């Protein structure tokens, strides 16, 4: 687990630009009556990339994902999902997608293994040598940790188990592109870690592109190669977790004390400031601590601005440059 | 592999799995067989008073008034089963997300709808048998023993299901919840059954009501059932004093054609509107209702 996490951190940089683009959205708009829920969303994802759509509840994450899934018509914009406009996607196109829904009690009377086998059946005519469909049910159950529940009825599963079954159904057709809408809502930490392993494996070993929506920053940080922050109907910030944290605030806080008295100074040139500090006070400088703005700071600032109704005034330029 | 044939095979499997599951759920069993059991109980309760060797038969036969109502109730069970169950399942499974799940799969809707039609048809037939078999055992002279009756069953029962199930699908698509489906459907259905001569001969009704009743499938289905189970002498109490099979096939056929033309359109429109957000909203509402 820890090893997997470390290799993951190393690959957080965006992949080479010539990799196949599986998801391409430009100027996506969604208008309900007089309100623009989505006001010009742009996003792309390449093969094998994990992209997180991060934002507070009710900001339009689900709407965005449902437009891409072909479940909802958009008001305007260009959308290409696996090279196809989802408004005109056929059954063959659908067979290449995996969708993890926010379910609650469907198929309650079905046995876990039975349901998974039945759902897999729909993908059988779409099997290719490169992507044999569907997946083996026994293997898949083991992968999501439901082996011993195969004979149980779906309505006897716990919330977390049910969610893992949703994920299993989402990937039973070995999708090229997987949509995860708030995938780990209701997971305990253990289940969450196992789920993260499943996602990493899909992206790393099967080249599955994954678009997940979440309001949980920690989750986005752990899972995603790239995070898109959605606020005010637009993507207001985009980048790897590290990039985002660095972009948001170029200033860091330097804390130190001299003779027991504490000082704080904010600066964008930490190295220069600290060099000056030592040149002046030398050995008297104690308790030196440099705090760089974390991704959480970034995110919280954005969300607060959005929620206090200043969404339109967000200075996006500070995120787009560099 | 032909994807369409494959989807039909999946629908068959789905229908079979759901059919088996129905027997493990008391709720489902009651939904399907509740009416059968209630009417069976009413029939058996009345029998000591209305049926017996000392009672006069109807139209010169040995059959009592009570025995003669049996075929009509069988027809009614067919209609309630195929309209109510279909409407209820569609609304309930829209609410719980089953339909959305089907929509997310390639040809999932074909599998879902096909499976549902098979399962509901099979359970509706069973609900008719649950009422019919004990009735036949109890009443002498039912059925009349005519083989032509079997032939009538062979075309009228499937045609009756085809004429009524699309109606259930249309109602299930238009109504917002299983509660609404029950509330809106049951009463009109009962009224139609009442004026269609299911419980008593239609000739006690005013002429205008008789004409109206003949617009709906229930009267024709009930008449076909009577012709299948009762001796031909009883045709004399029907409108036109004969078993009007041609007219029955015509009216039921017209309902079937109209239903099969409209239902796919309404179903497709309903399915198109399904999305996670909509299911989530409905879930929220249902939860509030529970709380």
Describe this structure in words.
The complex is a heterodimer of chains A (322) and B (291). Chain A is of the alpha/beta class. Chain A has two domains: 9-243, P-loop containing nucleotide triphosphate hydrolases (Rossmann fold); 250-291. In chain A, 36% of the residues lie in helices and 26% in strands. Chain A is built from twelve helices and twelve strands. Chain A has a six-stranded mixed sheet with strand order 5-6-7-3-8-9, sandwiched between helices. Chain B is mostly helical and 291 residues long. Chain B has one domain (3-46, 64-290). In chain B, helix 2 runs parallel beside helix 5 (108-138) and helix 3 runs parallel beside helix 6 (147-174). The radius of gyration of chain B is 20 Å and the shape is elongated. The model of chain B has no long low-confidence stretch (mean pLDDT 90). Chain A binds chain B through residues 62-63, 65-66, 69, 71-72, 91-92, 94-95, 97, 99, 101-110, 114, 118-119, 121-126, 169, 173, 181, and chain B through 1-3, 6-7, 10, 13-14, 17-18, 21, 24-25, 93, 96-98, 100-101, 103-108, 111, 274-277, 279-280, 283.
């Amino acid at each position: 687990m820890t090893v997997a996490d470390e290799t993951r951190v190393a690959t957080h940089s965006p992949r080479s630009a010539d990799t196949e683009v599986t998801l391409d959205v430009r100027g996506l708009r969604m208008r309900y009556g007089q309100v623009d829920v989505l006001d010009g969303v742009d996003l792309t994802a390449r093969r094998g990339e994990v992209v997180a759509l991060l934002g507070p509840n009710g900001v339009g994450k689900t709407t965005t994902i449902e437009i891409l899934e072909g479940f909802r018509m958009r008001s305007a914009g260009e959308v290409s999902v696996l090279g196809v406009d989802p408004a005109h996607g056929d059954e063959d196109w659908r067979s290449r997608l995996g969708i993890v829904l926010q379910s609650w009690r469907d198929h309650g009377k079905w046995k876990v293994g039975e349901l998974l086998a039945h759902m897999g059946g729909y993908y059988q005519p779409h099997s290719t040598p490169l992507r044999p469909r569907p997946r083996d049910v026994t293997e898949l159950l083991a992968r999501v940790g439901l082996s011993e529940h195969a004979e149980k009825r779906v309505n006897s599963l716990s919330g977390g188990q049910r969610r893992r079954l949703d994920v299993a159904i989402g990937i039973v057709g070995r999708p090229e592109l997987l949509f995860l809408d708030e995938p780990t809502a209701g997971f305990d930490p253990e289940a969450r870690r196992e789920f993260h392993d499943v996602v990493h494996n899909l992206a790393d070993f099967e080249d599955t592109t994954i678009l997940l929506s979440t309001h949980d920053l920690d989750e986005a940080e752990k899972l995603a190669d790239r995070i898109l922050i959605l606020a005010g109907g637009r993507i207001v910030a985009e980048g790897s977790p590290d990039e985002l944290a660095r972009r948001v605030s170029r200033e860091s806080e330097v804390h130190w004390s001299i003779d027991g008295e504490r000082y704080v100074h904010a600066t964008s040139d930490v190295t220069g400031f600290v060099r000056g500090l030592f040149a002046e006070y030398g050995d008297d400088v104690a308790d030196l601590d440099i705090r760089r703005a974390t991704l959480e700071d970034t995110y919280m600032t954005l969300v607060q601005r959005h929620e206090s109704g200043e969404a339109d005034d967000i200075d996006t330029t500070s995120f787009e440059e560099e | 592999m032909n994807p369409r044939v494959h989807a039909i095979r999946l629908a068959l499997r789905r229908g079979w799995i759901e059919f088996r599951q129905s027997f493990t759920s008391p709720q489902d069993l009651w939904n399907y067989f509740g009416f059968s059991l209630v009417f069976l109980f009413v029939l058996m309760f009345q029998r000591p008073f209305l049926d017996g060797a000392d009672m006069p038969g109807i139209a010169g036969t040995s059959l009592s008034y009570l025995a003669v109502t049996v075929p009509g109730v069988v027809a009614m069970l067919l209609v309630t089963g195929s309209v109510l169950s279909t409407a209820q399942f569609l609304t309930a499974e829209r609410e719980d997300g089953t339909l959305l799940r089907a929509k997310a799969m390639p040809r999932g809707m074909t599998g879902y709808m096909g499976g549902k039609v098979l399962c509901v048809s099979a359970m509706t037939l069973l609900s008719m048998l649950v009422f019919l078999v004990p009735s036949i055992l109890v009443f002498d002279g039912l059925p009349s023993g005519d083989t032509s009756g079997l032939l009538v069953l062979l075309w009228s029962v499937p045609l009756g299901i085809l004429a009524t199930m699309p109606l259930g699908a249309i109602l299930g698509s238009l109504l917002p919840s299983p509660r609404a489906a029950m509330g809106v459907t049951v009463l009109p259905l009962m009224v139609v059954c009442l004026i269609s001569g299911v419980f008593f001969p239609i000739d006690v009704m005013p002429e205008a009501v008789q004409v109206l009743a003949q617009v709906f499938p229930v009267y024709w289905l009930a008449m076909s059932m009577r012709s299948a189970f009762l001796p031909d002498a009883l045709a004399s109490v029907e409108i036109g004093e004969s078993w009007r099979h041609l007219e029955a096939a015509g009216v039921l056929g017209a309902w079937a054609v109209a239903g099969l033309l409209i239902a796919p359109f309404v179903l497709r429109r309903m399915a198109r509107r399904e999305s996670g957000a909509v299911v989530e909203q409905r879930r929220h509402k249902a939860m509030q209702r529970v709380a």
